[in-house]
Amino acid sequence: MYFLSDQHGSAPGMTKPYHPLLEDQTNMSSGEMKDSKHCHDNSRALEDREREKKLAKKRLYIVSVVCLVFMVGEILGGYFAGSLAVMTDAAHLLVDLTSFIISLCSLWLSSRPATHTLNYGWHRSEILGALLSVFTIWLVTGVLVYLAVERLIHDDFTIEGTVMLITSGCQCSFISEYIGTLLISGHGHSHGGLSGGHSHSHDHRNKNGHSNSNANHYDVEEHGSGKRQQANASVRAAFVHVIGDLLQSVSVLVSALVIFFKPEYKIADPICTFLFSLFVLGTTLTIMRDIIIVLMEGTPAGVNYNEVREQLLRVKGVKAVHNLHIWALTMNQAVLSAHVAIDDTVEPQAVLREMTQTCFTSYSFHSVTIQLEHQADQRADCSLCQDPTK
């Protein structure tokens, strides 16, 4: 239930109940309607989200087509050259192509509307798609390492150095051309839309049946984005794959040069595969770490928990901050919720405006929910109100 406070910020008992969906809202005067601030009036969250997904899809479509062309070329070149390194590069491109398709599917799923069961929508499908992409490349890399070991043990392979050199050289030049397609460019903005207050009853109950009712709370929810945003998870995973392709192609080119001038050093082919496998592990561990943070609802990268808490405490009239939770729906959609105790002498709406504006202008929060409470209603022994240990 929403409450409209008078111009002096009167106490909750002096307010009248209001809900934005009630028909009697149309009886408000034109001046009241003009002064009202709906929570999404100034929000560009949906617009920015659609723009980001459109750009991500465009990038993924382009690299998928280019990846398919490169893959066919490397399969033919590796076959005629008899090079495992070139064939493994082609197999890696096949994994990349599969991961790009998975990413496109996850972007499509994330566009589906929210439901009663999935009330946040399908945004996490991007994270799951990126996770599946990482798993597939680990699997294929493991197979390639196995084949390289077989070659080292049996030493029953021959390599056509000229074909290998031409194929790897073309691959390096082509990848260097299209790698810019996935270069991640950040952008930022802020939203200043403010909603009305929300008053309700909030009880704390312990095992002994004791109840502590905080009867006068104000909730405000806003949507927006801050100055720093992380790249779309699907595009970021694709970018890591393309970087891996480039470095692998460079290593294949180096081994091709060695084999071309010194055919007896054909062992450079499986060794190249080993080195590439180590690189793949290193590059995917970083994105895997960020995926785990999102799935575990941890504080996203670029947001300092204690710093956010201190900024909220600096707002005039704020006495305490607890139940502060910062998590992410995706790598570029951070969410914040907090309970804030304020002095009885300050105007609640003024505090809400300053805190939400601080959150949106300083951090990349997609959604912020702040519940205001009276300082007198705080309980130090409430287990639900304790701060994180570290």
TrEMBL record:
InterPro entries tied to this protein: Cation_efflux, Cation_efflux_CTD, Cation_efflux_CTD_sf, Cation_efflux_TM, Cation_efflux_TMD_sf, CDF/SLC30A
Catalyzed chemical reaction(s): Zn(2+)(in) + 2 H(+)(out) = Zn(2+)(out) + 2 H(+)(in)
Annotated segments matching region Disordered: 1-45, 193-223
Single GO biological process annotation from the record: insulin secretion
Localisation per UniProt entry: Cell membrane; Cytoplasmic vesicle, Secretory vesicle membrane
Lineage: superkingdom: Eukaryota
Residue ranges of the TM segments: 60-84, 130-149, 237-261, 267-288
Residues in Cation efflux protein transmembrane domain copies: 61-296
Keywords: Antiport, Cell membrane, Cytoplasmic vesicle, Ion transport, Membrane, Metal-binding, Transmembrane, Transmembrane helix, Transport, Zinc, Zinc transport
Basic residues composition bias: residue spans: 199-208
Transferase as UniProt keyword: no
One MF term in the entry's GO annotations: metal ion binding
Start and end residues of each Cation efflux protein cytoplasmic domain: 301-374
Pfam families: Cation_efflux, ZT_dimer
SUPFAM superfamilies xrefs: Cation efflux protein cytoplasmic domain-like, Cation efflux protein transmembrane domain-like
Cross-referenced Gene3D superfamilies: Cation efflux protein transmembrane domain (1.20.1510.10)
Record's subunit section: Homodimer.
Family, similarity comment: Belongs to the cation diffusion facilitator (CDF) transporter (TC 2.A.4) family. SLC30A subfamily.
Name of the protein: Proton-coupled zinc antiporter SLC30A8
Origin species: Sinocyclocheilus anshuiensis
Lineage, opening ranks: Eukaryota, Metazoa, Chordata, Craniata, Vertebrata
Gene for this chain: LOC107696534
